[in-house]
Amino acid sequence: MYLRKLAAQVKGYQVSKGGPIIMTQVENEFGSYVSQRQDIPLTEHRKYNAAIKQQLADVGFEGPFFTSDASTLFEGGATPGALPTVNGEGDVENLKKAVNQHNGNQGPYMVAEFYPGWLDHWGEPFVRVGTEQVTKQVETYLKNEVNFNFYMVHGGTNFGFTSGANYNEAHQIQPDITSYDYDAPISEAGWVTPKYTAVRELMQRYVKYPVPAVPAPIPVITLPPIALSKTVELFDLKRDLKPVTNNTPLSFEDLGQGHGYVLYSKRFAQPVQGKLQVKGLRDYATVYVNGKFVGELNRQQNKYELDIQIPANATLELLVENMGRINYGADIVHNTKGIIEPLTINGLTITGDWSMYKLPFDKVPNLSRYPTKNREGQPTLYTASFNVPQTGDTFLDMRGWGKGIVFVNGHHLGRYWKVGPQQTLYVPGCWLTKGKNDVVVLEQQNDVLHQALKTTDKPILESTQ
Questions:
Q1: Cα separation of 454 and 380, whole Å?
Q2: What is the dihedral of CA 16, 46, 73, 132, to 10 degrees?
Q3: Which residue is catalytic, options 113, 188, 233, 443?
Q4: Is 248-352 a CATH 3.30.300.30 domain?
Q5: CA-CA distances (angstroms) from residue 54 to 34, 50, 196?
Q6: What is the pLDDT of residues 410-434, one digit of tens each?
Q7: 113 catalytic per annotation
Q8: Out of 29, 75, 296, 341, which one is annotated catalytic?
Q9: Which residues, 6+ apart, have CB-to-CB distance to 78 below 8 Å?
Q10: How far is CA 442 from CA 164, 407, 408, 451, in A?
């Protein structure tokens, strides 16, 4: 169904029809998964790729078809009738040898993903790839008649909850930051960088046609500090939410929710104290007893436990955030979110009467009917209206804030987090209006009470705590 709908919209733009679609990709990095599942016969893996290629042909895609893998993984990723292309390969001889082995010693040769930068994770340094390194590799491809595609040539933004995640050998999740600037030749906001200029000047030496001038940049503005006019404590939203109850905590998926937050709540008739363990946390939680913040748990740091003291007739609550689904590697199949195993205190499973409040934050909540409150340590929604004399791109300066998300005029800008390296959020000028605009900030940690929100004309992407 999906491929039929897609083909109906784009197949008329294929190169065979005089259009700009010059190739159709069958699979991406499938060879990586073949290498990790050697318990499955290679013939079965190859049936999968062949079936995908046939489905594309059946709905009207004419090719040329291609696959893309590391050069060492063509055995599992390549498929007959599709050009095998390489990801991240710098050695031209290795590239040509691998392609020739799987494409009849004839080429053509292509690097489908040439990396002039790299993606970034929360709490880790921003990755830079030097301009000289990039231009040297580009010239190697040009001299050897190797086709190549920049990944990425233009940075972007993981707006909303669209950012993904990796994981490391310690089984710690590595959530991607909101910015996908990528240290790309063209920045997140569409600015020309020195890297772009160097690549452009190099490539102009290899073409005989005129190259258009670089477009003028989009205007950038800054605004006076935005006074925050109302605050609503997140837990007050519970009064208008119908909780889901169960004997043990349910995952996001069991609750029918994909992204955002779930508040897990349980009342204890008898006092209990000791070691709270949430081994099934996916991915980040702030913990409260009777509404008072008592600690933070974080899958990124493998921090799954804390000492806790719960009086009689008190309520334990965990505000759990999905920090992004793993999008590469063997754990891509282990992507359930929320709390996916029972909690324990002193090794005893805590069951009975768990209430779960769904907070997907797929849109801005209506806060007009809630009282104004703001206490340190309470997750809080800050709201404000502000005036824009003339629209343009800008960046919200979130330095001094803790962790949360921001909406501007109903548009979800994504996450911020004081751990960095990203400290600003990109606001496209097209999302602002001349005159009155609205902003809502969900601040999860709220260890400082905020009075204003600031803007800046430059992104801050390299500041870690």
A1: 18
A2: 20
A3: 113
A4: no
A5: 20, 6, 39
A6: 999 999 999 999 999 999 999 999 9
A7: yes
A8: 29
A9: 31, 49, 67, 69, 84, 102, 103
A10: 20, 9, 12, 14
Strand, coil or helix: what is 138?
A: helix
Q: Where does 11-130 have alpha helices with state H?
A: 30-36, 42-58, 74-77, 92-102
**Confidence class of residue 104 from pLDDT cuts 50, 70 and 90?**
confident
Residue 132 is a catalytic residue: no
pTM: 0.95
| CATH fold for domain 2-114 | TIM Barrel (3.20.20)
pLDDT tens-digit series, residues 52-75: 999 999 999 998 999 999 999 999
CA 459 remoteness from chain centre: 18
In the chain, where the domains are located = 2-114, 226-230+363-456, 248-352
Distances (CA, A) of 368 to 56, 120, 362, 382, 407: 50, 37, 18, 12, 16
Alpha-carbon torsion, ordered 180, 186, 188, 193, to 10 deg: 110
The percent of the chain in helix, strand and coil, each rounded to the nearest 5, is: 20, 35, 45
Tell me phi and psi for residue 196, to 5 degrees. -60, -45
Pick the CATH number of 226-230+363-456 from 2.60.120.260, 3.40.50.720, 3.30.390.50, 3.40.190.10: 2.60.120.260
SS (H, E, C) 159-189: CCCCCCEEECCCCCEEEECCEECCCCCECCC
Residue reference for tokens 């083909």: 7
Q: Rounded to an integer, what distance in angstroms lies between the CA atom of residue 247 and that of residue 250?
A: 9
Question: Cα(154)–Cα(183) distance, rounded to whole angstroms?
Answer: 9
